[in-house]
Amino acid sequence: MSYFKNINTITYEGPKSTNPYAFKFYNPEEEINGKTMEEHLRFGIAYWHTFTEDLSDPFGAGTAIRPWDKYKGMDLAKARVEAAFEFFEKINAPFFAFHDVDIAPEGDSLKESNENLDTIVAMIKDYMKDSKTKLLWNTVNNFSHPRFVHGAGSSNNADVFAYAAAKVKKGLEVGKELGAENYVFWGGREGYETLLNTDMKVEMDNLGRLFHMAKDYAKEIDFDAQFLIEPKPKEPTSHQYDFDVASGYAFLQHYGLEDIFKFNIEANHATLAGHTFEHELHYARIHGMLGSVDANQGHPLLGWDTDEFPTDLYSTVLAMYEILKNDGLGRGGLNFDAKVRRGSFTPEDLFHAHIAGMDSFAAGLKVAQRLIDDNVLEDVIGERYQSYQQGIGLDIVQGNTDLRKLEEYALGLTEIKNESGKLESMKATINQYLLTTFASK
Q1: Which sequence positions are flagged as catalytic?
Q2: In this model, does residue 58 exceed pLDDT 90?
């Protein structure tokens, strides 16, 4: 059965194309600095937003019209697999990602839930035999069910901790079975509402213990996926233990996990934390911790996780700049953790949204590579920090001075001269690169 029978495979037609079912900037085979766009961008499709999302919000019921929703239970789960692989093929996606409950319904017991998973995993594995699409990452949903009301790995209830750990064990087995490149830990409930009833040290220690158990079990079953933590500052808890990359990195260092984990960075989570997307990417990159990306964007007028498809070219340029400076994402990718708007409820809208997101990052890739080739940012930054290349500045960075020597030097200064940061000029230059990169196409 075809769930998207009126849509053909999406191909690249170039910037002048008026075909809504064609890529304008994403040409998978185009080479940039020795790698194809497909190799650079490693796009992934989020199973949850694309195939299970009903587009409900806190103020209204779902609006999504999906041809597979006529089924129920396991029949619905199987239909979604069929629809997913048809979508993967037509959008030409190299990767996908999922939570356990995205692909199979929970049963009345953990045993029944695992049996449901086994059935659908076997079906997915069979489909993957004839598909180019691989599993970018999988994870388990340890946040939606009421049992996780007080957290999962950080729960005050040891029974809940054990249940969450059992789900992680199964998730690692599923990842190995399907050849996942990565395994993600998103602590949707790993935080607290108030310190009035919270033992933070116990909760954080237990979360660290769970991560070590996961590391040990992955080694036991020979599952060599990259482990990723996905930071999020709030929503649902008031104080998340994985607030941003900086707090997450401190956590990993404290519990001796910094060599095991990297970060899966989501754009919308970055902005909720009060950072820019590129800030989080940069912080992870300079510490060797940039692993993968959830590609989306938030709404500047809304204070929650809107998970919109990325269309802000300025943002995609700066994101791809960081990714290129990181020498790519390695085993990671650009996973579209994004959903169509509530008014975009047709199956066709799923294609329009992904085309827009893929084109936006392809455009960002081309502009970012030009910026790097021309040393635009490097030259400005190098000039700003040139005082550390000689004299007292060089002594500072090489550790060849102390407070007494610095005082002696400062007492001899008759004038301190600062130079302009040239921020407006730099933004104008980026705009120029954005506009001229595609001007002749």
Answers
A1: 99, 102
A2: no
